Amino acid sequence: MLRRALAVLILLFVLTGCAPAPSSLPPSPPASSTFRVVAYNAEWLFDGENDPDGSPHRDPASAQTHLKAVADLLGRLDADYISLAEVEDAAVLARLNRLLGNGFHPIFVQGTDTSTGQDVAALTAVAPEHAPFRVNDRVAYPVPGSTLTCASGDSAVSKHYVVDIRLADLAVTIIGVHFRAYPDRCSESAQREAQAAVVASIARGALARGREVIVLGDVNDFDGTVPDVAGSAPISDVLGLLKDLDPAAAGDELVNVCAGVPQSERYTNWYDRDRDGIDDGTRERSQIDHVLVSRGLAARVSAVSIDHSAPSGSVSDHWPIVVDFAVPASVAAAP
User: Fold this and answer.
1) How many other C-beta atoms can be found within 10 angstroms of the C-beta atom of residue 61?
2) Adjacent-strand bridge partners of 327
């Protein structure tokens, strides 16, 4: 990845003690390099001190063990950008960064989820163009055209961030999200559609400014046109709202990159329905985490996978999505 390539160049310079003579100059760098993005729900990445009742890591030692396991998994993935769900705060994110070698710029914007205290956060090897931010916009539900008339109200997105980075000639806006849970419940799904409308508005604005867009994270819903391993059918149009940013234009503006993953591998979440601690396979697996990208970036996807190397529940009840983009080789990693 970009960080590793930069480290190799620095090591060569140190070992030689000076720049190489003109006759021994290395060949020109390739026209493109790989920028690896990971989206991962780390499941209660907290510090174990005065944590909410829902956290399974109720003391600092247990929380540190979990943090180390997450760091080990992410370290193996060698990502340039990591988007995380269920992070407690900036301090825990900083601890994770240290375990990964302090090679990242932390991205953390305090959210408004007072129920769990969870937030979304990120680590990026490429410096942000400016401070990350979030919006407090609210959208009424049912949203126009929705079939979910079981509840009404309005909703914001309590857990999200927006960050702009530049990959050489590519201006990219990344929106990390964690939506309301329970894809099979009507009321929550109606609220989730409102949350999707908020994020769609942010993405639409970024596209209008000529930026490429990535929306990624725990959407807590299924994609009916990119079915998961279980063929889970959504009762909402959350993914549709996120992908079709301009219904008046033909086609979707954002693409689900996991369309490139075999359906048998499309699962990012293990839901232990019978609470027996055993992964019962397809009936307990689904894909509710997604990475959606604008068409300019979709053309640059060189590889996509869902990393199932960690046994079910050993690190998290989710598995990470890993996406490689071919980007200009002049992109510099963080110092």
Assistant:
1) 10
2) 33
273: left (phi over 0), alpha (psi -120 to 50) or beta: alpha
For residue 278, report the phi and psi dihedrals to the nearest 5 degrees.
Answer: -115, 130
Q: 181 and 140 in contact (C-beta within 8 Å)?
A: no
Domains and their CATH numbers in the chain: 2-328 (3.60.10.10)
Check: CB of residue 63 under 8 Å from CB of residue 57: yes
Tell which residue, 123, 247, 221, has the closest CA to residue 174: 123
Contact partners, residue 36, CB within 8 Å, separation at least 6 = 1, 2, 77, 78, 79, 80, 81, 322, 323, 324, 325
Give residue-wise pLDDT tens across range 185-208: 999 999 999 999 999 999 999 999
Query: Cα–Cα distance between 246 and 234 in angstroms, integer?
Result: 21
Could you tell me which residues come within 8 angstroms of residue 312 by beta carbon, excluding any fewer than 6 positions away? 270, 279
pLDDT tens-digit map of 126-164:
999 999 999 999 999 999 999 999 999 999 999 999 999
With 0.90 as the threshold, say if the pTM is over it. Answer: yes
